[in-house]
Amino acid sequence: MRIVIAEDDPLLREGLALLLRAESLDVVATAGTAEEVLEAIDTHRPDVAVLDVRMPPTHTDEGIRAAIEARRRRPGLAVLVLSAYVEQTFATELLTGGVGGLGYLLKERVGRVEEFLDALHRVADGGTAIDPEVVAQLFTRSRQDTRLERLSPRERDVLALMAEGLGNSAIAERLVVTDGAVHKHIRSIFAKLDLAPTQQVDRRVAAVLHYLEDARGR
Amino acid sequence: MATRERTTTGGRTGRGGEKRSDSLKHTVVTAVLAALRALGRLVGGFGTALPALALLGWLVLTAVTSVVGVGLLMTPAALRALHALAGRERGRLARHGFEIVAPDPPPTKLRLAVADATTRREAAWVAVHATFGLLLGLLGVLLPIAAVRDTVFPLVWPLAPPDATSTSVGIGVAHSWAEAASVSLLGLGWTAVVVGLGPGMARLQARPAVRLLAAGPDTDLSLRIAELTATRAAALDAHATELRRIERSLHDGTQNRIVTVTVLLGAARRMVARDPAAAGELLERAQTAAEEALAELRTVARGILPPVLDDRGLAGALSGLAAQCAVPCRTDVDLPQRCAASVEATAYFVVAEALTNIAKHSGAAHTTVTARARGDRLWLRVEDDGRGGADEAGGSGLTGVRRRVAAHDGSLRLSSPHGGPTVLEVDLPCGS
């Protein structure tokens, strides 16, 4: 897996590269600004870009802008965005363009190496990795959504894990239930959220998007 | 001279008395200090009453000659002088704790200005202050001199020529020790008058200004409101900037360091079975990053409120700054009581910024920091003998200082001619 890293803090940048290289992943380039990373993406054609949200010059949302721009230039590029804190607008802005091959994680998750690598691989394979913190905030903010109120607590748990990007068996493992039970919950969620099986889009993605867009509308 | 000498003595007694916390002594000390402050105000009032007298003469002359037309030419200058003096008196009284809300500036057109309510009120004040205020101010100057002269008269009596008048009031000649000693009693009497009536006299002298120089009941306070709105906005702005600075140094500095620690620890954990030596190296780096995080955290915390202010007060904090300054720095700080924490922090940053600028740009050989409590205001002065030419627009951090000062409703004055010296003066309400 070919990776580029953009992080303006030199020590953390080195740390990330060191960690990934120690896992025998191929870090092809590192960058300190959005411009540099876009250049590196053009030059090195990586599989995954790991981007920090706040980078010079304004230290606001350069990473998000860079992610959107990079995916515009190279559709299908997997992007994992790392953030110092959860910012809803960043998450929704990033993910409404399509959730495949995207991740949004708090920076400190990187320290849990197994989970971080898992998220990285998931994103590289076209999946999603959303930080549990982001999902938790979505649920708080979406509490007034009447359709959400139809969900049982267990179904919310399942949806939360779905939004994090976990597959059915991973969800079953986390909740200590059988795969069949998870299947049942998911079908129920789709029904309650009015997601008909005839829809073209992946219903899992639609369910997650529903919350993201809902949170954005507020 | 006499006044000044007594000020020093009074001050010393004051501090000794408070330490012993003897209540009678405390009362006496408070009364003496109040009298000394009142004398200071009366003498200051005398200082504006003399120009007021000259101005009064000028105004009368202008008015009289205006009848034949000549005076009309003098009117604009006379009115400018009137507004300038009134402004000076407002400033002086503000330093003594009288909040005088200044009216709108009077119109510049001659006819309107003459008819303007503010102009008329200021002219009335000049008339009262040049006569009544001058008299009170004169008493403020003479009473302490008389008190000292008469009190110490017995000491100089043996040296005085035999027929010299003994008392300040100009009557009586002392012929014996007893008579000379009784002059001393008269001196104590003057002192009692000063202590008893001084504060009242000072209030009386200030009253016409408080009444006449403030915005009249008919004028609207839009100017003051605009000013308050602006300073309030500046305060919010300064706070927002400050908070943004703190947030940024926490998120982009400290937090990144700690994330680096977790990343390195995570990597080390994965490494430990495979390659213990490499894992040890990672742990070493993680520890260094953790230490850096701590150092960053300290810097951020100190930036919010220097702990030295709490530990040693503003005086101690300022001498600490002076000791760290690359240019030899003398401090002269006399602050009997604490101010609000935010005001002290601002004062600290003003001086820190000024000394940094001096060390960086001025080429000065010496610098002096002075801090005084004036009524309920804190007054700071930073002076250096460098090359001058300090420019606020030059990004010297002075703009930030000015905003921070304005946020506290204080004022900042910078004088820095080419060739020096540079003087920065800041006046802040204590707000305690």
CATH homologous group name of the largest domain in chain A: Response regulator
Q: Based on Cα principal axes, name the global outline of chain A.
A: globular
Distance between the termini of chain B: 33 Å
Number of helices of chain B: 12
The major β-sheet of chain B equals: 5 strands, mixed
Which regions of chain B contain 5 or more consecutive residues with pLDDT less than 50?
Answer: 1-18
Rounded average pLDDT of chain B = 80
Oligomer: heterodimer
| String of helices and strands of chain A | EHEHEHEHEHEHHHHHH
CATH fold-level assignment of the largest domain in chain A: Rossmann fold
Largest interface: A-B, 21 and 24 residues
Radius of gyration of chain B: 30 Å
Helix content of chain B: 55-70%
Number of strands of chain A: 6
Structural class of chain B: alpha+beta
Kindly give the count of domains of chain B: 3
What is the number of helical segments of chain A per DSSP (H or I, 4+ residues)?
Answer: 11
Helix content of chain A: 40-55%
Question: What is the C-level CATH assignment of the largest domain in chain A?
Answer: Alpha Beta
Overview of this protein structure:
Chain A: GO terms for molecular function: DNA binding. Chain A: Keywords: DNA-binding, Phosphoprotein, Transcription, Transcription regulation. Chain A: The modification 4-aspartylphosphate is found at residue 52. Chain A: Pfam families: GerE (PF00196), Response_reg (PF00072). The complex is a heterodimer of chains A (218) and B (432). Chain A is α/β, with parallel strands linked by helices. Helices cover 55% and strands 14% of the residues of chain A. Chain A contains eleven helices and six strands. Chain A folds into two domains: 2-130, 3-Layer(aba) Sandwich (Rossmann fold); 136-217, Arc Repressor Mutant, subunit A (Orthogonal Bundle). Chain A is globular, with a radius of gyration of 17 Å. Chain A has helices at 10-22, 34-44, 62-73, 88-95, 113-124, 132-141, 146-149, 153-164, 168-175, 179-192, 203-217; strands at residues 2-6, 26-31, 48-52, 78-83, 102-106, 128-130. A six-stranded parallel sheet of chain A has the order 2-1-3-4-5-6, sandwiched between helices. Chain B has three domains: 2-212, no CATH class; 222-304; 307-429, Heat Shock Protein 90, CATH 3.30.565. In chain B, strand 2 (367-374) and strand 3 form a beta hairpin. The longest helix of chain B is centred in the middle third of the chain and has 53 residues, at 222-274. Chain B starts with a helix and ends with a strand.
